[in-house]
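Consider the following assembly input.
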Amino acid sequence: MAAVTAKTNPLGLSRDDYKGLATTLCAGCGHNSITNHIVKALYDHGVDPYRLAKMSGIGCSSKATAYFVERAHAFNAVHGRMPAVTTGAAVANRELLFLGISGDGDTASIGLGQFCHLLRRNVDCTYIVENNGVYGLTKGQFSATADPGSVQRKGTVNQLETIDIAGLAVQLGASFVARSFSGDGQQLVPLLRAALSHRGTAVLDVISPCVAFNDHEGSTKSYHYVKEHELVLHGLDFIPQQTEVAVDYAEGTSTDVELHDGSHLRLRKLGREHDPQDRLSALRVIDEGRQSAEVVTGLLYVNPAAPDLCTMENLPQSPLRDLGEAELRLTPDQFAALLREWQ
Amino acid sequence: MAEQGSVDLNLVASTVNGSGSQSANLVLTRAVFAMGIPVAPKNLFPSNIEGLPTWFYLRANSAGYRAGRRRADLLVALDRATFQADIARLEPGGVLVFEEAFGAPPVEEGRPPLHLYPVPFGRLAKESVPDPDLRKYLTNMIYVGVVAEILGIPDTALEEALTHQFRTKPKALAANREALALGRDYFRANLTKIDSLRLRPLDRTSGQLLLEGNQTAALGAIMGGCTVLAWYPITPSSSLAEHLIGLADRYRIDPESGERRIATIQAEDELAAAGMVLGAGWAGARAMTTTSGPGISLMAEFVGLGYYAEIPAVFVDIQRVGPSTGLPTRTMQGDVSFAYTLSHGDTRHPVLLPGTVLECYEFLQQAFDLAEQLQTPVFVLSDLDLGMNLWMTDPLPYPEQGFERGKVLHKAELDQMQRFERYRDVDGDGVPWRTLPGTEHPLAAYFTRGSGHDEAARYTESEETYTRVMDRLARKLETGRDRLPAPVVDGESAEVGILAYGSSHHAVVEARDILKAKGTATEYLRLRALPAAPEVADFVARHSRVYVVDQNRDGQMHQILQVELGPQLAGRLRSVRHYDGLPLFAADLVEAIQREEGTAAAASRPASVAGMAR
């Protein structure tokens, strides 16, 4: 029998090095699938675990940061407040790679304001919303992303308009917005890798069915519903920076988006015309999907050139936290001169 | 009668907000200061951009008392809306400078007549300043000219003040100089001095600075190594953030790269500001926010997380009058109880209580050290009076010590270790070691959370573990107690003690002199931090009565100390409370203590604050 040699990524790490604690979420939960896709994306991408910072708020989704990359620091904040904590950490140390996990309650209700302002500041992070339209830990109340007409497990019909996280993000000028489905690793993994390569806030609104409270008939966030109604905008391939971009598709059948770090996301056409660097096109496909009750997935919008917060603030490349007295204090001469001025 | 050469004059100028009164008031302040006379200026301003009444109090006194006085010796009345009410602020027989168009006030039966100086401010301004926009701003400078003439402020002092105030605006300097001369010339040509107020030069301001607490706190933050400021605009704390940003623009830009060695983020609300500070503190930066009462209400949730997850952070609260929106532009020490145990569950935070602008500078620096040493949110409680008024102060010293960055493990130390547990009390002082995200070591990572956790930062609901962690957090604060600014005790042993904190200090200093002159000697302890130092118990134990001075309705510090000192000493504490939104005045304190002591004299003003050079 041949010796088993574990496969490794360019950092020499195996896929197991990207694993975390065993999940405590329900068996079959969409969030667990997303965790697996995150592990694959981080492994494929060769993310250094020591550079990774896992951020989250409160809710089932926010627990997920414990279930991957145990060797990375994690901050499980308070409900809906992960954006603020991430913003502070991001300016303190811009060498870190921030991966945030939130849920629909965390993002679209209690944390809606912070979410909006995170996008305005374009804080460099990946922001995954594990969106199931329902509050799980408190046992099944509707969230703000539930669609009108959607039926709760006990039969209550949601009459309120939905907050479309992806639509809102595009509207607010977010620099990277995608929607995907927890059951579609083929699509989600390249999107995650593109998000990791993007500089700025990359929002991934990932429909993630709740098997305990929102997977029944009448729900628009069930496995069955999403499978039936998913409208995939394009096929996706992530092409890392160091790989030569080989032309292996017939002309006109695909487009490439070059990301901030020089890697590419290749979009294979599937019939629907959509230019993800055109905000109006993004808003149109989102709204059309809403009209036709379809779940539009894929890269909705990207602006690889948008400056992130640290760039706008003109912060040094090295972490602020490492600066000492010499860099931070006025010199005795400057100090004396200032006091004379204040005299 | 005041002694020969001594001065104690209280001027009140009643103007309309947004009419350039601030410049005029500052010029007057600086001119008196330039005469070598100690000054204590205070602005009482409305929550308004323009149009509402605003009052400026300027106390000039040779003793160097920095508290204000309630009643005016000289009133400048330029606001018709408050004219009648303002006259009631005058001492009997005081001096009234007023807009002639308001008409002379009626003589009050049984009160000594006022000394009246009607001046046609409006007409003078209209005749000499054709531009109505500019006129609005110059009218107030005319009053400075009139007052200068009444009090005998020399031209040299006025010129020094003018050039200081308008040093970057030569055009405004010329216009204001003219307006000032207009008032002075009008007085000379049309009025005769009929009162006895006069300021004579002294030599008691040399080497002194006039600074605001928010300004010195901002410099303290810069010198204390703050690299992240997250804030949301709120009176009376905004000027601290703005001063800090101004200093950062000058001193934190790398001359070669242009890079900025500080992030200053205007957050979407105070809640987010607190979250940013925690995120930055967790990542290892020295981070702070500055706010006022409504802001800390919103920050309560995050402060609890900071306490339980043990994250260094500095929270500055420039207190104003609550509850709710309260009186946003008036001063109070209303957040003491709330800040001390901010957030749900059992929490307790180190609270620093600066009493002077010098301490605003020093305590801000110390707050960053304490936050990192104790790995917890640290509060600095200033107030509007201290933060937004100018105070005479000794020069600020250059820091002698480097930063104290607390217990942080880096890769090199982790290489020597078999095990790292984030919340393990390995040193027995309640303070664990931490690692920062980005540390390249397999032992470094831990999971930060506000939910129940064990020493290894793992989730747990175990009752034993929860209790153990909470007990350690209490122990950690005990470790911190010794590192907090110690109380300052003054005076020889006496039966009566006074205990005060924050901006009350200045009224206490003066009140003690008055009380002493009236035969009541006092010993004074100025509390500079919570939890209270052991000296406080000693101090209380050696007095039969200790008056605890609070600028709030409920005697918050009195309540805290009753609990902290325990039943044996609590009975010796008596509460003196001031809560009308004005700064604390010595005379009120004297009256309250005398009433309690049962020795209250007649209501007449004590001689030693009577006032003015004659």
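Residues 300 and 343 of chain B are 5 Å apart (CA to CA). Ask yourself how this observation constrains the way the partners meet.
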